[in-house]
């Protein structure tokens, strides 16, 4: 366990170093003087005064060797200081924190919604394996998995916001605003959760301890609750946290469609505006979180399932 | 090629080894696959029919598309379905059906190219990790651990910030993390295959390592890898569409299904079909490959319990039994 932790921490550090080098290089990529690019993004004036460019170069220390600049940047980054946004002049950390909390609520809402539907469907499909109900559920889950959220979202808006007028079509200022984006976002994970629940449950139901429990006179629902659920939830849990990490920055399209001030939209607009400090800060945060969440999941998996602990080294 | 005589059935009349023609006795993986497709699962049948239809239309597009996809007819904007425009026209009076056909060629081709890159690199790296172990295994699998949790869209945004938009960036963005599920699956399969007798036999016969890898390990892992390829294809298609929808993927004047959806957004209320049809095209194509992939997976599971002999009655090299869904293709 300790070895596993040390190893994964090492991997995390190496990853972050690589990511940080790439993030640092963003303003240097492509042609042109980075100072000129930065200045252009700031003042939005195509005809730049060379003296201004030189002043900024001096101010930002862009004339120093690149590794020196990198280590200084990395030092600031470690303390959470990514500088100021070019466009809004607000510190990056003050932009990332609220965006992240919005994305976390959206991801949790979508994934919980997905679980609420997927668990019963997956269990029913597994207990009626090969039957009509199973086939219907299988087909539904395949459809859910194949439905692009940027298609479902606008269609939902058309129906519930434009025609019925029940829900707001975008924005983020209350519970009603979370319903449609969460629904659109939940479809694909819902399909995957259903399939994984079904597969895990099928396997568990074939296990000898289920037969043993049944032969002791335990009713089928009780067997399911006591033995089936506990043993089949591990893969679902893994998938849940995987999706959670993925949705933190990956729900870009839905956040753009519904105009939600989350992490995905922040990253997207910063890329469009070439707002380098925000891109750097956002990327570092999102990718760090993704790796950390995944490591914790793998760790928990080992704790909850002693059978695989050995192979995990 | 000496090892292929091993697979000669014991009941066969023995010929001098140098006269036997090895290729004909070798269980042919391709034939076996075709034969096995004859015992299909229903989702496979439906999915295959859908996919064949879509591919046929896309291949024949230059000949069957009713209009020039770029041909504007401003007097006839956002018109509903008619005899001339079966699926209506968009906000510039362009024929939606023709645009769907031409756009689909972009979407499907880009998803296909990235898929091939991911399958080939993932399979080879995973097989190497599983066969060789040691530091190769460590490096490959730790890389997988990290990359697997990076969302494709975030990688794409990162690359676009670095290199700008373009087809190269698009394909790279989808491939950087896209190979990892294949590597994970393949490594597990390779570990399983390592323990088989035919590997031991090949090793005793002194077959070179690369030969064992490409002749025994990878072919016997192909069915689950094929199933996963189909499942991943749907995922890639959706991601390509998402990036185009964000106007970061396919760039004008080219247009794909995602870009068509983006164009249609302002007119959703006035002309819903313009905003629904391209999404439906992505949905149907993704659904078809998902159904094929899962059909293959289910059938594969059934077969591993039933099958003891290969085609031509020879004891088969028993393929690995893991399936893509169990392996967490859901990722």
UniProtKB/TrEMBL annotation, chain A:
User: Which PROSITE patterns does the UniProt record give?
Assistant: ABC_TM1
Which terms are listed as keywords in the entry?
A: Cell membrane, Membrane, Transmembrane, Transmembrane helix, Transport
Q: Which GO terms describe its biological process?
A: transmembrane transport
SUPFAM superfamilies in alphabetical order: MetI-like
Cellular compartments per GO CC: plasma membrane
Report the sequence similarity comment from the record.
Belongs to the binding-protein-dependent transport system permease family.
What protein is this chain from? ABC transporter permease
From TrEMBL, chain B:
Q: Which residues form the ABC transmembrane type-1 domain?
A: 104-293
Gene Ontology CC: plasma membrane
Q: Where is this region: Disordered?
A: 1-20, 300-331
Membrane protein topology class: Multi-pass membrane protein
**What domain of life?**
Bacteria
Q: Kindly list the residue ranges recorded as spanning the membrane.
A: 42-65, 106-128, 271-293
SUPFAM superfamilies noted in UniProt:
MetI-like
Q: Entry's InterPro entries?
A: BP-dependent_transpt_permease (IPR050366), MetI-like (IPR000515), MetI-like_sf (IPR035906), OppC_N (IPR025966)
UniProt record, GO biological process: transmembrane transport
Composition bias of kind Polar residues appears in 1-10
Give the primary localization class.
membrane
Q: Which UniProt keywords apply?
A: Cell membrane, Membrane, Transmembrane, Transmembrane helix, Transport
The protein's location, in the record's own words, is: Cell membrane
Report the family membership: Belongs to the binding-protein-dependent transport system permease family.
Record's protein name: ABC transporter permease
Origin organism is Nocardioides immobilis
